[in-house]
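Please think about what follows:
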Amino acid sequence: MKVSAEELAKYQTQTPKNEAPPLQEPIAMTVTYKFASLKHCIDTFRGDVKSHAYTRISNPTVEAFEEKVRALSSGICAVAFSSGTAALANLFFALGYPGANIITSPKLYGGTIALFDMLRAFGVEIRFVDFNNLDAVEKHIDDKTCLIFTEAIANPLMEIIDFEAVYRVAQRHQVIYVIDNTNSVALFDALRWCDVEALSATKYIGGHGNAVGGMIVCGPFQLSRARYPKFYEPSNDLNGKTASEAGGDAALPLFLRCTMLRNFGSSLSPFNAYLFLNGMETLRLRMDHLSSKSLMLAKWLQAQPQVKTVCYPDLNSNAALLDKYFPGGTGGLLSFSLHGGWKEVERLFNRLSTIQIAANIGDCKTILQHVGCTSHNQLDSKQLAEFGIEKNLLRLSVGLEPLEVIQADLQHALQ
């Protein structure tokens, strides 16, 4: 049966020829990819050639975003996920197992605490430790410890620790140390002081509150066979190879992509990757600007008689640690509390006009939120007290508005 050329053209994939390459990264909104031959298809799925096979596993636009974050962090490999929480969940499930334990700080973002609560249902013990007491950290490590986890700047208490000292403890015991660097991305060189950097791209990387995504960035390290045996066992996802054999120093990111992403499906949308790539064009400029402005705002808040406490690293942290880890500033997030109670808090929120009431950080708009009602609303009053969070603590994500505009709105609301 003969079919006309015009009819065939309707069904053939068209590839424009002789085009100048686009200046912006194109959005590859596709589920799958066209193989040159059956052999190319087979070799791709066997892992014998580097080629995209299915967007749940990899995608050109997402890959461009991963590469840009990898270069920013000086890592060896980066894997993108559908959200920051998805990135952490996939990482924790990759390294954890029933009977394992995670050593962490109680001073964390509320969503991460809720995720840890969920992990307990899968048989993973969560051990909260004061990371200013390294002896206590070391005493809590045993042969079932699968990772150590802290935030670069504790959210919402805005505290920092001695990361190098914690990393030395982790290395002595061959335990993976993970730092969530969401709040200080582009300011804090996390992979100098840990094995794995976790990021919520939703926040400062995107910078405009229009996309949700996450990233895991890995440095080079060998996983201990005794502590992480699953990476030394043959895997059907790797065609019978072990993750250690196939990935070497990149065994963990290989496992995250070929096992976790492939089977859990927490893949990042190519369109969101495109938005994040645009956000990264101004990331360093924004972080430098927000750091200097937030410090001035924190000092101004300290001087207001209605304000009880202000939490910002430059005001509350050891100067030597700040100089060592954050020479370029500590970002655009701060917390504060008021004298009085709920009445004063409610009045403050109701008198705002420029500052937005929302549940996010890292947006170009300044956002104020009540910590206990939003980011930590999963915690009861007893847990909030245990984790050092005041009942009426407020978190301010400083945006790109002029400093005097933010100050004027706060001053009006405080009065």
The radius of gyration is 23 Å.
